[in-house]
Structure formats: structure tokens, C-alpha cells
Amino acid sequence: MNIIEMKNVLKAYKSGDNTLYALRDVNLEIEEGKFVVILGPSGAGKSTLLNILGGLDQSTEGKTIVDNKDISTLNNNELAEYRANKVGFIFQFYNLIPTLTVYENVALVNQISPNHLDAKEILNEVGLGKHLNHFPSQLSGGEQQRVSIARAVAKNPKIILCDEPTGALDSETGVLVLNLLLKMAKEHGKTIIIVTHNQNIAKMADVVIKVRSGKIRSIEKQENPLSAEEVEW
Asked: Cα–Cα distance between 172 and 127 in angstroms, integer?
């Protein structure tokens, strides 16, 4: 079953008399529960694609249907509700609140998501049960990224969108983080979409989507994706 369908999506920006195209004629289907990697160089349109899927931006033309709802027709309040309930976000830089503890950073989602999961249980699952009362500054980069994963998962969304989630991590910590994301797809049925320029990460994906110059150049399904440990970093 497809959880995402994009139909003839175009994103254009006006600059004086010129029109800049971030995305052109994007057609895409993603099945629920898949681990998907969107691959391409800087400026290819990857982040624009992710922002549209996340309800952070809207397309100029075309339809984006997520969980049977056309989010391209939603107003600002409806988009805020969509972001609160349907999607979790994980970024390269962890966007944690420095004055809140690990537990408080994750438990924040209780205020915005009616279907949230227990923050303490999720933090235990990502291996941070002993750090509940620590502040972000007391954690390593990999631990902070695991907090951001826990926060995204605690919302209990159907889709988790990741923008270069291992870009600031060493390879060993990156493997740990990717394994956590893979577990969310395989064991919890979440649809994981990772935007990256790192071709190694693509070897782990069920589906690899290659983007260049605002267009989808290829969509490849991989029958036997590698585990994070099997990928040569």
C-alpha cells in the first residue's frame, strides 16, 4: 500500500524576471513501512522534496498525497496539524533545546501529538535510559542524534523524514543511528525517508531514488539491501 504519492509536482521560485525550478515534474510512489533513500548532489532538489513531504513547504503545481490526503491543498493550520500527527523530523544538527533534559526534550511531543508514545520507553529503546536527566551539552554527538530520533519516534508518526541524519557523525556512530532507523521501519512499520549525498547509505535502502537538477532520474528497488554493518564506510 502506498503511503505517499506525488503527481506532477513542480516547485518554482520567482527571482525578478527569472524562474528557478527546485523540482520539475516529480512523480513518485512510496510504500508504507519502507526504508527509502533519496540520493543526489547539493542543489539537486532533495531537501525541497523532503520539505514538501513534511508540510514545511508547498508545491507550485501538482499533488502530494500522504496517507490518502492531498496535503498540497491544506491551509497553514491544517499543515501544522499534519506535521504534528503524521511526520517526525530528524536533521543533521539535532535541534535539541539546551535548557531541557533528555527526557524533557522527548516528552515535549506529548503536547502536540495525541497518539504519542511513552518518552521513557523510547529513550530506553535507543539506549539512553541512563541519561534521562542529562542535558544535551553533556552528551556526545551520537547520543544527541539518538535523542532527536527518540523525539521523532515518540510522536508516533507514520513517516519519519531525515535530512542528512549522519552527516555530523563519525562512521561508528553513524552505523548505530542508521540501525535505529532501520529498526523503526522493519519492527515498527514506520516509513523512513533519508535525504543524503552519501551513496553508502543507499546500499541499506529498500528503495533508492536518485535526484538531479530537480528531477527524479531513477527509482530502484533493492531486493537484498545491506545492513549498516555490511556497508563499507
From this structure: 15
For the range 179-183, what are the long-range contacts, defined as Cβ-Cβ under 8 Å and sequence gap of 24 or more?
179/227, 179/228, 179/229, 180/126, 180/146, 180/149, 181/35, 181/90, 181/149, 182/35, 182/227, 182/228
What pLDDT sits at residue 139? 95
In a domain, 12, yes or no: yes
Beta carbons of 61 and 25 less than 8 angstroms apart: no
Q: Could you tell me the pLDDT band of residue 126, with boundaries at 50, 70 and 90?
A: confident
Residue 229 lies in a domain: no
Specify if 8 maps to a domain.
yes
d(CA 103, CA 33): 27
Gap between the Cα atoms of 76 and 49, Å rounded: 18
Identity of residue 93: F
Q: pTM higher than 0.85 for the full model? A: yes
CATH code of the domain covering residue 211: 3.40.50.300
> For residue 26, what are the β-bridge partners?
9
Query: In this predicted model, which residue has the larger pLDDT, 214 or 16?
Result: 214
Grid coordinates of 170: 563519525
